[in-house]
Design brief:
With about 100 residues, the protein is α+β, with helices and mostly antiparallel strands. It is about 40% helix and about 15% strand. The protein is built from four helices and three strands, in the order αβαβαβα.
Length: about 100
């Protein structure tokens, strides 16, 4: 921006519920791994009793899942409570459908 010509009042910023909401994603080693591989993954992710819990903003959930490769079936970790995450993603998608 080079210069500002005049003043314009700022509008009200809409509330972003998906940014404000945090979901707990539970990860565990992929069930198809050997016992030794599972121990390595548990150590790498700091898992306790075969699971780790990460807090993720709902607005970033899709990107988080993609970044960790949880949208594929060849990764080293998987969702411990897949149904819960799918439910949250389905809810987020409803927001997009209602906005259009």
């Amino acid at each position: 921006m080079v210069e500002l010509d005049g003043e314009r009042p700022a509008g009200e910023v809409p509330r972003d519920d998906d940014w404000g909401r945090v979901v707990v994603v539970r990860l565990c080693p992929r069930a198809t791994l050997s016992a030794g591989q599972r121990r390595v993954i548990e150590a790498d992710y700091g898992m306790v009793e075969g699971e780790t819990r990460l807090e993720v903003r709902t607005a970033l959930l899709f990107l988080f899942l993609r970044r960790l490769g949880l949208d594929r079936e060849d990764g080293m970790v998987e969702l411990a409570k897949r149904d819960e995450v799918i439910e949250v993603l389905t809810e987020v998608m409803k927001h997009f459908k209602s906005d259009s």
